[in-house]
Specification:
Elements (H helix, E strand, L loop, with lengths): L22 H10 L1 H20 L4 H10 L3 H9 L7 H12 L1 H13 L4 H9 L3 H12 L7 H22 L15 H13 L6 H17 L4 H17 L3
Helix pairs in contact: 1-9, 2-4, 2-9, 2-10, 3-9, 4-5, 6-8, 8-9, 8-10, 11-12
């Protein structure tokens, strides 16, 4: 046991070992995600309003938000929501947008490899940009509770479900979300997540590369490929710079 009077800091075990999955971890994730969930609630209202303008019913909005649970791809789908419905175009486009989840899952693999299949699969259903960023930040600080992302995801999903349903109901009142400043909420949430993940100057080059590649791809290649290309480029540069 570590002597409390000692100045020696406890050694953090490798990610593959020492992982737990407890109610306390889930509650910690749920609690720490509340500020982010407020931002999610705000741009969830935007989706609800736009979904109503696209002709989706309240039940359809709730089912999409609960089953898909991916704000960026849901908003992308609404932009393609025309009659007749281009089903395959919507599927392909949203697939491209959500390919970034492969990168997020790969980043979590060293930690989640110590969990059971049920624990991993249930947790990954609640994977979102917000819950992933908060979870990675916690693990970087030495936390080894696999239930953190589950608790975080439940909080984010609850905010998303409630706000999209409310936005659908308020569609007749909020005709233009931009007039209320709600369209900036999505950007504000991601800026706050980036600030929380900043570790210092070593992060600068990968972030700049990711941003540069994403912007270049946006202008050079049609579609949503810039999301994936920026993430892959930044990840590769980061891996190269931190390689032993």
């Amino acid at each position: 046991m570590l002597n409390r009077k000692s100045n020696v800091q406890p050694v953090v075990e490798p990610a593959e070992s020492g992982m737990s999955f407890t109610l306390a971890g889930a509650l910690a994730g749920a609690k720490l995600s509340i500020p982010v969930a407020v931002g999610v609630f705000t741009y969830g209202l935007v989706f609800g309003v736009l979904a109503g303008q696209s002709g989706l019913s309240l039940l359809e909005v709730i089912m999409m938000s609960g089953l898909v649970f991916a704000g960026a791809s849901q908003l992308t789908a609404l932009g393609l929501w025309t009659a007749p419905l281009p089903i395959f175009i919507i599927i392909f486009t949203t697939l491209i947008v959500n390919l970034r989840h492969i990168l997020m899952g790969a980043a979590l693999r060293p930690y989640f490899s110590g969990l059971t299949r049920l624990q991993r699969y249930v947790s990954f259903f609640f994977l979102s940009d917000e819950s992933w960023a908060l979870t990675i930040a916690q693990y970087a600080r030495g936390s080894r509770n696999g239930a953190f992302m589950l608790g975080s995801g439940v909080t984010v999903l609850s905010a998303w479900l409630g706000s999209t349903a409310l936005g659908r109901g308020l569609g007749s009142i909020i005709n233009d979300p931009a007039q209320w400043g709600l369209d900036f909420a999505f950007t504000a949430v991601f800026i706050s997540l980036l600030v929380g993940m900043w570790k210092g100057k070593p992060d600068l080059i990968p972030w700049l590369v990711a941003a540069g590649v994403a912007v270049a791809t946006y202008y050079l290649i049609p579609g949503k490929w810039y999301i994936l290309s920026g993430g892959v480029a930044g990840s590769l540069v980061g891996a190269w710079l931190h390689a032993d």
